[in-house]
Amino acid sequence: MTGEALRVADLPGRGRALLAAREILEGEVILSEPPILLYPSSLASLLSYCSACFRSLPPPPHAPCPSCRAAAFCSPACASASHPRLVCAALSSGLAAAPEAHQEPLLFLLSAYSLQESSLRALLSLSSAPQGPSPSQQQDAASLHAMVASLAPPHILPPGFSPDLTAALLSKDRTNSFSIMEPYRPDVPLELRKTRAYAVYHRASLLNHDCLPNACHFDYVDRPGPGNADIVVRALHGISEGKEVCISYFAANWRYADRQRRLLEDYGFQCECERCQIESKWKFDDDDDNDGGDGDDTMEEEHAKEDVGDGVDEGMGQEEGSDDDGDDDFPHAFFFVRYMCDREDCYGMLAPLPPLPNGDLSHVFECNACGQFKKEEDVDEPDAGDSSMAN
What we know:
Helices cover 24% and strands 15% of the residues. The chain contains 10 helices and 15 strands. The chain has a 3-stranded antiparallel beta sheet, with no helix packed on it. α4 (100-112) packs across α6 and α4 crosses α7 (163-176). The protein starts with 5 loop residues before the first strand and ends in a 16-residue tail after the last strand.
């Protein structure tokens, strides 16, 4: 396929969104983008990952930052690119002594205030949570602003540095950042998988949430070549022109109550998609064991947009081989068998590999969390009414 795959549109009740600009094939790479902002998840990340691209550091000796000596780089190219100047200055002036709870937002603010003016404007153009900051969040913003001012020399702070700008930046981080995860390892339990860094992407941040997404994103950290922190978004199935392209902000097999709680608390909206309308009528036992429950934070996409309304891409509710007449207990079971990774303790999504150069579909699926490959013929259709993957 040729031509731009996505276009930006303002949708009523949903804010800015990305729509299919043409017919999109299953597995097609519809977006590949470097971050406009990349920052470490913690000071501990500086010990294990390149401070420029967050690739795993090779065995010592490393190339240390000549200014702060606290950061290291994986290659001469990354050493030349360096890391955010305000982070560098703060590492030399007491950032490590800041309370642990404040280190992550401080790393974000110091990195954001180090951006070139055009990138800072792009960051500020992204959406914030619709409900606005609470009084406690406003107090935290004022405290963090004072910390930034104490850690960074005044002459390198950007024009416009102010408490209001700091509060505005913090609101962008909460709703637009993606986690750059440590690659999956079968010997590392899910709850111990670490976040290396957080990234904000100008276009990918416009992707809205749906509980039955038609796309998912991949990170390819530590693979050869440049773009270690680039995001790659692939279509789960064919998407017709004009349809909205959506991802899930967390593991797709979370149950209804957990999804709604997280979306409301972290992103400020209640989801009314087709799946949620069906599952809102179900009865749940509060003591039910739910593999995709609220404790599964590692698959969270870590960003959100404006309020999300109902409706999903046509075809999501009724795939070939499913019987979606609205009467089954779980008419979307086919989606989970086809697109949910079945590897224990993974909870990733299976997306088809990109179409072949001649346009033929690949019929091979790749998990965006553990990286396993699965042939299409190995996907079995669920029994009628099978809802075990969502409850």
